[in-house]
Specification:
Bound molecules: 4'-deoxy-4'-aminopyridoxal-5'-phosphate
Radius of gyration: 21 Å
Keywords: Aminotransferase, Pyridoxal phosphate, Transferase
Oligomer: single chain
Largest sheet: 7 strands, mixed
Structural class: alpha/beta
Cofactor: pyridoxal 5'-phosphate
Subunit structure: Homodimer.
Family: Belongs to the class-I pyridoxal-phosphate-dependent aminotransferase family.
GO molecular function: L-aspartate:2-oxoglutarate aminotransferase activity; pyridoxal phosphate binding
Shape: globular
């Protein structure tokens, strides 16, 4: 018998661990400031009405068979998904190779595996990940046998984007290096480059022959506008930078458990595209055979029906607006309490997350003593705030910084 007792335990996932502790907590004041899924003002997961309508339409089909998809996934869905993140022109003329994946994580994974196999620049290629970043990024790329490194993106003093640091790290990376970039609503800092800064970065990428791995899990959450939020992708496309796009529908459609995502690779010709698609299919076949069907059917229904699509677009804005509103309310409460710190960065940052600037010790106090659960990084998941708990959370934050 194999002696599995000798296996080391992997490092636990801090977010899942924190949420497990939250679930066990019986204190009535408890607040979850770490959810990874969008909550409404009642603290409940929001089933988007457009998605609910599409789901009802699909399951009422008398012939719905839960059949396998083809290995590439739901091809008409992939085309709609590509339109959303790359734009109509790129889809019509850009020779986009797409693969349906198991959520955004699957898109990152398959993108990483593909690049490990085929991104050959004669020598080792490093993958640069923003510091800080979504906690799974390093693991996913290391799992695909890459050495991962960090690039600067956050200035802890100003609690804003460290653009100078980011630019310097991009500028000094070796030709062919891969940079994982958050398209919008950076997780965990909420600090995105401006359009002009993306333009500048895309020019450096082109000049230096760098590869852009554009990860997009929150399109529409930063500004409330799906088109404005994809500016980074537009900028890199315009410059003709080599890239992959990893797209997730988990948050933006509330389809978390359906694991809906896509990987898109713009190619230089139809000839190249066919090869890329076939290689992506070959990887998929070996790993999971084919992506799950149900979420793709639902989202295709939403995206191909003009009325449902515009309803969905307005629902994304509702989510984004609520997050901005909660940022404003939290800051207003903190100002009312005359907290010594300046909290304006909370309203300047965008999307689901805010890097509050609370230290590990202060975050631990929030969690352990105030029952307001947040990770040691001080990342606040803004969606955890509601009209009824924002005042309490502000009081706790005021307390820990005094
Ligand atoms: N990338 C980033 C930056 C994320 O924040 C997330 C989700 N937390 C993902 C990828 C993965 O998304 P999914 O849940 O669709 O796998």
């Amino acid at each position: 018998r194999l002696d599995y007792e000798v296996l080391p335990l992997p490092k636990p996932d801090t977010m899942f661990e924190l949420l497990a502790r939250f679930d066990k907590d019986t204190d009535p004041r408890k607040v979850n400031l770490a959810p990874g899924a969008y909550r409404d003002d009642n603290g409940l997961i929001w089933l988007l009405p457009s998605v609910k309508a599409a789901t009802a339409a699909i399951i009422s089909l008398p012939t719905y068979e839960h059949q396998y998809l083809g290995i590439q996934g739901h091809v008409p869905f992939l085309r709609q998904a590509a339109r959303l993140i790359l734009g109509d022109v790129a889809v019509e003329t850009g020779h986009i190779a797409s693969l349906q994946t198991s959520g955004g994580t699957g898109a990152c994974h398959t993108g990483a595996v593909f690049l490990k196999k085929f991104h050959d620049v004669g020598g080792d290629v490093d993958v640069f990940i923003s510091n800080p970043s979504w906690e799974n990024h390093h693991a996913v790329f290391q799992h695909a046998d890459f050495v991962t490194r960090s690039y600067r993106c956050y200035n802890a003093k100003t609690r804003s984007l460290d653009f100078a640091g980011m630019k310097a790290d991009v500028d000094t990376a070796r030709r062919g290096s891969i940079f994982v970039l958050h398209v919008c609503a950076h997780n965990p800092t909420g600090c995105d480059p401006t359009d002009e800064q993306w333009d500048e970065l895309s020019r450096i990428f082109k000049r230096k022959g760098l590869y852009a791995f554009l990860d997009c899990a929150y399109q529409g959450f930063a500004t409330g506008d799906l088109v404005r939020d994809k500016y980074a992708v537009e900028a890199f496309l315009r410059e003709g930078v080599d890239m992959v796009v990893a797209q997730s529908f988990s948050k933006i459609a509330g389809l978390y458990g359906e694991r809906l995502g896509a990987l898109h690779i713009p190619c230089r010709s139809e000839f190249a595209k066919v090869r890329v698609v076939e290689q992506l299919k070959a990887i998929n076949r070996r790993e999971v055979s084919v992506a799950p069907r149900f979420g793709a059917d639902i989202m295709y229904h939403v995206l191909s029906d003009e009325a449902l699509k515009s309803q969905w677009i307005s629902e994304v804005k509702i989510m984004s607006d609520r997050l901005s509103d909660m940022r404003r309310r939290l800051v207003a409460e903190l100002q009312r309490l005359n907290t010594s710190c300046n909290w304006e960065h909370i309203t300047k940052q965008r999307g689901m997350f805010s890097y509050t600037g609370l230290t590990a010790e202060q975050s631990r106090y929030m969690t352990d003593e105030c029952h307001a659960y947040m990770p040691p990084s001080g990342r606040l998941s803004v969606t955890g705030l509601t009209t009824s708990n924002v005042e309490y959370v502000a009081r706790c934050m005021d307390h820990v910084v005094r």
